[in-house]
């Protein structure tokens, strides 16, 4: 990966991170504004379900921000774009589709197959 490509992905990750943080701030404002003051029990239950869904979505976004931060650290230390298992370059198409990828497609597929076969349900 050359410097231009690395900078492209750094900017892409920063933009994505910024969008997630903005959405999180909007959610926080929304949750602070609205109290559960619905007079109807069904309306109150519906509002509570919406609130729980928003919180779950924000939790997923928080975890995604953490992965983006890790990817940004890899950009800085020069290891971004290389598989953490095989140390081979991750394809640009894969990074374009999933900028936080840490494994090549082949390594990810092997990892997922191993998870399925060794899963303890």
Automatic annotation (TrEMBL):
This is RNA polymerase-binding transcription factor DksA. Residues 5-75 form the DnaK suppressor protein DksA N-terminal domain. The keyword tRNA-binding does not apply. GO terms for cellular component: cytoplasm. PANTHER family: RNA POLYMERASE-BINDING TRANSCRIPTION FACTOR DKSA, RNA POLYMERASE-BINDING TRANSCRIPTION FACTOR DKSA-RELATED. The gene is dksA. Belongs to the DksA family. NCBIfam families: dksA. The keyword Chloroplast does not apply. It comes from Roseospira visakhapatnamensis. Pfam families: DksA_N, zf-dskA_traR. Residues 78-113 form the Zinc finger DksA/TraR C4-type domain. GO terms for molecular function: zinc ion binding. Keywords: Cytoplasm, Metal-binding, Zinc, Zinc-finger. It is found in: Cytoplasm. InterPro entries: DksA_N (IPR048489), DksA_RNA_pol-bd (IPR012784), DnaK_N (IPR037187), Znf_DskA_TraR (IPR000962), Znf_DskA_TraR_CS (IPR020458). GO terms for biological process: regulation of gene expression. Transcription factor that acts by binding directly to the RNA polymerase (RNAP). Required for negative regulation of rRNA expression and positive regulation of several amino acid biosynthesis promoters. Interacts directly with the RNA polymerase.
């Amino acid at each position: 990966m050359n410097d231009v490509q690395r900078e492209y992905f750094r900017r892409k990750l920063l933009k994505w991170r910024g969008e997630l943080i903005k959405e999180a701030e909007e959610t926080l404002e929304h949750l602070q504004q609205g109290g559960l003051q619905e007079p109807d029990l069904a309306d109150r239950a519906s509002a509570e379900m919406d609130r729980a869904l928003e919180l779950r979505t924000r939790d997923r976004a928080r975890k995604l921000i953490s992965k983006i931060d890790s990817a940004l650290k890899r950009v800085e230390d020069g290891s971004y774009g290389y598989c953490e298992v095989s140390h081979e370059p991750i394809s640009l198409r894969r990074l374009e589709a999933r900028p936080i990828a840490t494994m090549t497609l082949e390594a990810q597929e092997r990892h997922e197959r191993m998870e399925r076969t060794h899963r303890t349900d």
